[in-house]
Amino acid sequence: ETGVTQTPRHLVMGMTNKKSLKCEQHLGHNAMYWYKQSAKKPLELMFVYSLEERVENNSVPSRFSPECPNSSHLFLHLHTLQPEDSALYLCASSQDFSGVGTGELFFGEGSRLTVL
Amino acid sequence: GENVEQHPSTLSVQEGDSAVIKCTYSDSASNYFPWYKQELGKGPQLIIDIRSNVGEKKDQRIAVTLNKTAKHFSLHITETQPEDSAVYFCAAPSRRSQGNLIFGKGTKLSVKP
After folding, report:
1. Partner A contacted by B35 (CB < 8 A)
2. pLDDT band at residue A35 using 50, 70 and 90 as cut-offs
């Protein structure tokens, strides 16, 4: 496999469920990201990890919990979500997290989440 | 606050025509402006970017122009083809969040054969 892969591609969950999104990058990159993409809204950065350390937490509610066990894997743990959390969650990676505008983001195809 | 305004939100052109998408940004210190293309069911993919030390950059049928004085930049696609149909996003760096990009809301381009 190449690039950035995300699983599952689609997820439906109730508000009391606990689920996780998984992302894996095969590019040898050092930085990984979670973005949220909602209809008619810009892409929103949620979390950034650089060399497995969280470097950015963009005021995301605690019902979203990221985990980065190594530089190739990134998880987003979900619990007690709200219907307004329904969106496409995109994982991305870049060679490094070394400052503004220095590197291309490589996105996965996303996990489409529906919260009932 | 920081923002990137993108227009139009939808654009429909005939195959072979040109398409232009415009973005404005608020931070005059911004120095990097990428464009991403998102096809249906896929993640965004970088198609071209420009840095503030140049006014124009071209790659085959796509080009980006930058006007730092007016704080706007544009994507130009010439000789459009049906496979150009997608959502296009512009972006600019965030001053508040080092390493982050502020994205526009996107333009859905439809190229009719």
Report:
1. no
2. very high
